[in-house]
Amino acid sequence: MAESPGTFERAKRLPPEERRRHLVETALGVFAANGYAGTELTDVAAAAGVGRPLIYHYFEGGKEDLYVAVLELAWRELIDRLEVDPERGRGMLASNLPAYLDLVESGDPAIAVIRGSRRLEGARITAATRESGLMLARGIAVNQLGLDDPSPRVLAALLGFLALFEALLEEWRAGRIERADVETLVSDVLPAIADAASG
Asked: Taking the model in full, what pTM does it have?
C-alpha cells in the first residue's frame, strides 16, 4: 500500500526521542504478532506510518537493533507490572504469579516478545535477554530472600528457576498441564530454590 506524503510529514514533526519511542512501541506490537523471523522493517514502517529509511536513521543496525530496543522495552513493562516489596516478601508471589499468568493467557505483546526472544540467537539479543533476566532475578531475590544485592550463586539459581518457569509455561500453553499445575509447582519450587541457593 502506498504511503501518503502527509503521513511522513506528520512523522517528521515529532521530536527525535518521541519518534524513537513511537517506533519502538509500534515495533513491539508487530514483533509480538509476527515473531522476529516473520517481521520485516517494512511491516514496522507501515504500522508506524513512516518510511523504512527513517527506521535506519534511529536504528543503524536495522532489524536487530530495533528488536533489542523492543526487548528492553518489553522487559521494562513486565518488571514495572510486577510488585517488589521486601516488607511483604514471599507474600508477593500470591499476587505476582497470577498477574504474570494472566498476561501470558491474554497474549500480552511484551510477554510474547520476551518469551520469543529466548529462542533466538545473536550476541546482542542474547545479552539483552540475559541482562533483563538478571533484573527479574534480582526482584525475585528481594521478594523471596529480602536481598538487595544477591550473590552470584543466588542469581544463578534464580535464572535456573526462570528457565524452569518458561518450560512450565510451554507445557501449559501446549495443553499438557493445567494453569493450576503451574501455580502449584511454582509456589512449591521457587521458595525451595531460593532457600537452597542462599544457604
From this structure: 0.82
